[in-house]
Amino acid sequence: MNPSVNPYTPWPGVPPVYLAGRDGEVKFIEGAFGQAEDGRIGMHPIFVGDTGMGKTTMLNYATQLAHKRDWMVLSVEARSGYSVVDDLLDQVRTLVQDLAKEESPALTRIKSLLSRIQSVQLSVVGSGGGLAMVQPQKVLPVTQLFKELGGLAIERKTKVVFSVDEMDQLSTTEMQLVLGVLHVANQTQMPLIIAGAGGLGLRDAMTKAKGYGSSIMLTKLFPLNYSEMAQAIERPAASLGVKIDPQALEQLTGTAQGNPMTLQLLAFHAWNFALDKTARR
């Protein structure tokens, strides 16, 4: 087949042409957004699962939906040698700059808080990371920042989505900050949704960071069944006028074992090396 029209996407976080087997998760995200639009906060789409199950894809679906609704979006990803807090603060500064022409009490308070930040340093301890706060009495409390962002959202008649990828890789300090924001959002009903994605160790990491972390709802992504895998392969091909050989379909689905990313990777290479050259767009 012509590689230039290959309809499969074996790259982390890139949504497939056809998102198979995730209807329930999509409805959960849309339900959480719908409740937020109605002024009810409490549903936070946080996905867990093995590598390749589509956690980041679902997280990206949530942030894309937020952008379509003109919500404010802050997105961070936990990784070694990287400060989630520094990235978060940089995004808030950018947001403030973008809204500089607006007259807003909440925006004024956010600017004041940002001006008080002295420094946030990242120190690596063993294989994990920990945040070392310099001059803590002058460092911006992250939960207070989000309270003001919630106030800004109310003034602008919108909502805030705080997206956290690789959530299980957060340091204990960072996890405490994220869970603290989630807790405050629920208690005060500020217009804020936490959207997260992480590995199967996320529950333990949340419980370690905060006692109530053990009670926060997580949505586990399970492997696709045969029918779902078949749809994920056949529908993108059919849109290009290509029919998948039944034997090839059996081989691809059997090898993938329900893993969406593995399935996309196998289908991607199978398309490129297929003998039929009919798809030439």
Question: Can you walk through the features of this model?
Answer:
With 281 residues, the protein is of the alpha/beta class. Helices cover 47% and strands 13% of the residues. The chain contains ten helices and seven strands. Strands 2-5-6-1-7 form a five-stranded parallel beta sheet, sandwiched between helices. A two-stranded antiparallel sheet has the order 3-4. Strand 3 (120-125) and strand 4 (128-133) form a beta hairpin. The longest helix has 17 residues, at 172-188.
Choose one word for the global shape: elongated
Round the mean pLDDT to the nearest integer and report it.
Answer: 87
Percent of residues in β-strands: 5-15%
Low-confidence stretches: 118-139
- Topology order in helix (H) and strand (E) letters: HEHEHHEEHEHEHEHHH
Classification by helices and strands: alpha/beta
Largest sheet: 5 strands, parallel
Distance between the termini: 10 Å
Major β-sheet strand ordering: 2-5-6-1-7
Number of helices: 10
